[in-house]
Amino acid sequence: MHFSIPETESRSGDSGGSAYVAYNIHVNGVLHCRVRYSQLLGLHEQLRKEYGANVLPAFPPKKLFSLTPAEVEQRREQLEKYMQAVRQDPLLGSSETFNSFLRRAQQETQQVPTEEVSLEVLLSNGQKVLVNVLTSDQTEDVLEAVAAKLDLPDDLIGYFSLFLVREREDGTFSFVRKLQEFELPYVSVTSLRSQEYKIVLRKSYWDSAYDDDVMENRVGLNLLYAQTVSDIERGWILVTKEQHRQLKSLQEKVSKKEFLRLAQTLRHYGYLRFDACVADFPEKDCPVVVSAGNSELSLQLRLPGQQLREGSFRVTRMRCWRVTSSVPLPSGGTSSPGRGRGEVRLELAFEYLMSKDRLQWVTITSPQAIMMSICLQSMVDELMVKKSGGSIRKMLRRRVGGTLIRSDSQQAVKSPPLLESPDASRESMVKLSSKLSAVSLRGIGSPSTDASASDVHGNFAFEGIGDEDL
Prior knowledge:
ten-stranded mixed β-sheet; 10 helices; disordered C terminus
């Protein structure tokens, strides 16, 4: 998750008090909250009490006198680095102290009072699920409420997540981000002040082997089935005419498990597809469509005069990756600190092991670069859990102060309509690369000098290539 403090504001104090500088904290380029230096200092002191000074990154010191504009900008940069470092620390970033601070600040900034509201959550097939929640409920609370409404068992809640999406005019979704523990879903979606933003429930794992756990339960089976039918309809899962005929036959028979077993064999089953963007592979400014799934990033592309092709980049071959943002300067080439900034340009770059002794950086320029990075991290986390013999099955903690009250009227997942005939305009793809299998596990060394260590995500699922793989 990308934290930034791109700007400051001069604001008047309460009841006509003296003016103060406010720092706008953005998450994935969107304003999350507005805080004062004293609030961030209070967070730092609380974290220091709980975890010790040696664990925390450096915090910008207090100043006795009013800050000059240059000092305000310097403090902004220091606070931005501090927030990024805390968030990226596995201990501090997952702490309740840090996350509750951001939730309170989000609610205060958006001036949303705590009250009961009805929140709409969509399933992958567009079906609406209305849940009664508090405006101050965190992501986990809302997820539990949706699970209760659908009658999804507690031990399967961890297999699903809530995603913020933007609904296009044609009804398809563009994924913005996975909702996190530091935000309030109701506030996050309503603060965008646009009806095109929605919250969607979707499975949160990548390895189709976990489907077996979900399919044991009726509701889990229906959710997985509805998502798969939807993915096929929107062209995310690649099917031939014969495969489509078989799937439609199974759907007519309401053979959901058999339908899913066949779907699991199809290319891009369970993948998340992103909007069209640009990459520098295999050549500069190459238009691509990126999909994430099955421990890889897939790039669909069309070279001049050639058919549609696909390149696959395995997560286990990525030594590290980073997300960078740049802001074009306004005309004239200069900008005052924190003001006059243009639209943020986001890039995901990963260092890939192309051959046994050759690493190469591949860069994807996309507004969804941060979401791509989150997908990479979650795939790595899942691989490491599997290698350690663990399981993603988990029970989410109950709300503080009592158990979750289930609704009397359970809402079943509606069966999706029959599959339509495959789109004749969809072309088959030729894979650019299909090997590079896993061999041995090793940790990574220091990141390349192309970026600072704080910008780089080290990949502990990175593996070497044996001679037999070349």
